[in-house]
Amino acid sequence: MSTAADNGGWKGIFAIPVTPFRPDLEIDLDSLDRQVEFCLDGGSRGLVYPGVVSEFFSLSEDERRSAAERVIATVAGRVPVIVGVSATSAPVAAGLARHAAGAGADAVMATLPYVQHFFTPDLDYVNAYFRAVSDACGLPVVLQNARIGHAIGIDSVRRVIDANPAIRYLKEETSPSTHQLSAAVAAVGDRVDGIFAGLGGVHLMSELDRGAAGSMPAPSFVDVLSRVYDLYVDGDRAEARRRLMALGGLFTHELLYNVAVIKEILRRRGVIATTVCRTPVPSLDAVDLRELDEMLEVADLDGLAK
After folding, report:
1. Is-contact 141 100, C-beta < 8 A?
2. CATH value of 4-305 in 3.40.50.2000, 3.20.20.70, 3.40.640.10, 2.70.50.60
3. What is the pLDDT of residues 245-259, one digit of tens each?
4. For residue range 221-274, what is the model confidence (pLDDT) as tens digits?
5. Nearest alpha-carbon partner for 109 in 180, 189, 10, 184
6. What secondary structure letter does DSSP report for 105?
7. What is the rounded distance in angstroms from the CA atom of residue 34 to the CA atom of residue 160?
8. Is 216 labelled a binding residue?
9. Are the beta carbons of 137 and 96 closer than 8 angstroms?
10. Global pTM?
11. Which residues contact 143 (CB under 8 A, 6 or more apart)?
12. Are 104 and 83 contacting, i.e. CB atoms less than 8 angstroms apart?
């Protein structure tokens, strides 16, 4: 069976750094630098910034530009950097894409405008939006088909990719993500260089079985997920499965509390200084923190990553 993973494009785990904030809500660039190095040391084969887990919608356009520049500079060409340019309109997304190209990005990634409107965008709107992004930067484009903003049906995804040859990758994470990924591989797997999964790597092995080129998760477990990916590619399914299943409780916590838990784990792993968020997130209470203590001890993330 021909799959997206056979096309010779980017593969593996492409982590999406969170945006670390100081207590005064300013971006903590030193923590951002440490996070980039943590991802690369953990085997991430590329970085995507900013994404949803980066709280990109809480950043000003100037902050998005400067933080993306910082990530690109810190990576210094060691792996591809995909800059997220999702925005409220085509002109804003195009401006961010133009800046990303000038800053040295390897590609850009965009959802449709993430502000909900009274009407669902039609195909002409979708095509015009992605054409504006691609025309502005001249880089490969990753179409992110996600729950945020307006999801695109798989048949429409195929038509958009056919009409916009700069779209070389798809990040498919609409629900149910596993079945939707299979449908995407069947519909456009021969039209793009790779189809990536999302949702934190929870279903990584199923997604790889269905033809995913890799996954774009938050960075909490990037080292473990990279090891799982390598084991899978090497044919050691049993060990890959064992290590992925060891993250089960932690995955549940991440899905439940999202960036609050992601930042707490990164803080505990010495990667970022605080768990401050700009977006409204649940505060982890004493029970949450005790459960997290127990799950981290049982999982032994450093051991799983070896």
Report:
1. no
2. 3.20.20.70
3. 999 999 999 999 999
4. 999 999 999 999 999 999 999 999 999 999 999 999 999 999 999 999 999 999
5. 10
6. -
7. 37
8. yes
9. no
10. 0.96
11. 109, 110, 130, 152, 157, 160, 161, 167, 169, 170, 171
12. no
